[in-house]
Write a structure and sequence with these properties.
Length: 359
């Protein structure tokens, strides 16, 4: 066989055989990339809305409804002439390959309307808090983020809205949450439904071994309960004649407002009055980090930070959670799970926004 035709034949076979393997390879690499891109943009949107609320700007949610990606596979076959001496026949070298062109299309749906807004404003259920506790989350983190008040103990309720002018009240509540967490770590505390009870009945239960201990007595004293019992029923509304613990959960929007107090704004924005300055009773400035440092802190920078877990550009600044701040990362992850439970079954309303991102 002539050498030039043999080279062309071999190259064509290589190109055709390559087509069979390109598809799975493209799928394998692109699925992980889309997964990471969707997660990153979800995190950025959540952080953006937290920062917006610190500035009293309106939050807005845009959900990715679908991602469709089309691939065009084209084979390439070229020829390159190599000239030798006059005694040597011209040699033809073949150049073969596969060209892959991706054409993704993303569809967005605005999350708005009465149903979605009502979900944002409705306090989460006690069952949701129990579900999170049974999923391994710290009872301290759950209560600090998700509870507005337990019995007579307020958990900075004024912080679950636009930044207040006066310092919030929260110290006794935080002491309670910390003591419960200590017993949870030691496996002496249970939060959930008891066997044999109706499914709606939720309790906090203590091991008999800790009844009378310093931590137990401090907990029941903070809650205003009579010591000695190992279990106390938790309700959202007090019932006359039935001793129980009244736990008032926050709404998801209240949680967003609460965490927005952990945004550290630039000094220039504070001086310009773009954010509220909260005052103590003696008129000194209240430091929100005293309340938020063990929950979530959002820092600011002039340039995009290299050490960010999640970052968003807003008002000519970068707002971000530090990648080494494990407390903030944990709370942010918990918030994302609560948002999924809150909005998962709500359909978006308004116009669809479809963006072709191909060439």
């Amino acid at each position: 066989m002539n050498r030039r035709y043999a080279a062309l034949t071999v190259s064509l076979c290589i190109a055709l055989s390559a087509c069979a393997g390109v598809g799975p390879q493209v799928f394998e690499s692109n699925r992980a990339q889309y997964n990471m891109a969707l997660q990153n943009t979800d995190d950025q949107q959540l952080l953006l809305n937290i920062v917006r609320l610190r500035y009293r700007d309106r939050p807005y949610f845009l959900e990715v409804s679908s991602v469709a990606s089309h691939f065009n596979f084209q084979s390439r076959l070229g020829a390159l002439a190599a000239l030798g001496s006059p005694q040597i026949e011209q040699e033809v070298l073949a150049d073969a390959g596969i060209v892959v062109e991706e054409q993704p299309t993303v569809t967005y749906i605005p999350l708005q309307g009465a149903d979605f807004t009502q979900r944002l404003l409705t306090p989460v259920s006690l069952q949701t808090l129990v579900l999170l506790a049974h999923s391994g989350w710290s009872i301290e983190r759950i209560l600090k983020l998700g509870a507005q008040r337990i019995n007579q103990l307020p958990n900075a309720p004024t912080a679950a809205g636009p930044t207040p002018d006066a310092a919030p009240i929260y110290s006794d509540f935080q002491n309670l949450a910390e003591r419960l967490r200590e017993l949870q770590i030691a496996d002496h505390f249970f939060f959930g439904c008891r066997g044999g009870e109706e499914s709606e009945a939720i309790y906090i239960c203590f091991d008999q071994s800790v009844v009378g201990s310093k931590k137990y007595l401090e907990i029941v004293q903070l809650l205003g309960l009579q010591p000695g019992a190992t279990s106390f029923r938790i309700v959202q509304t007090a019932t006359a004649g039935k001793p129980s613990i009244v736990l008032q959960p926050r709404s998801f929007l209240g949680m967003l407002y609460y965490l927005s107090q952990g945004v550290v704004p630039p000094v220039a924005d504070v001086k310009a009055g773009r954010v509220t300055r909260t005052r103590n009773a003696d008129n000194t400035e209240f430091d929100w980090l005293k309340l938020m440092q063990d929950l979530m802190v959002v820092n600011t920078a002039e340039q995009r930070p290299a050490n960010a877990f999640v970052a968003i550009a807003y008002r000519n600044r970068w707002f971000y959670i530090d990648d080494s701040d494990l407390q903030s990362k944990s709370t942010f992850s918990l918030l994302g799970q609560i948002f999924a439970l809150t909005s998962g079954s709500i359909d978006g309303s308004g116009p669809l926004l479809t963006l072709p991102i191909g060439n």
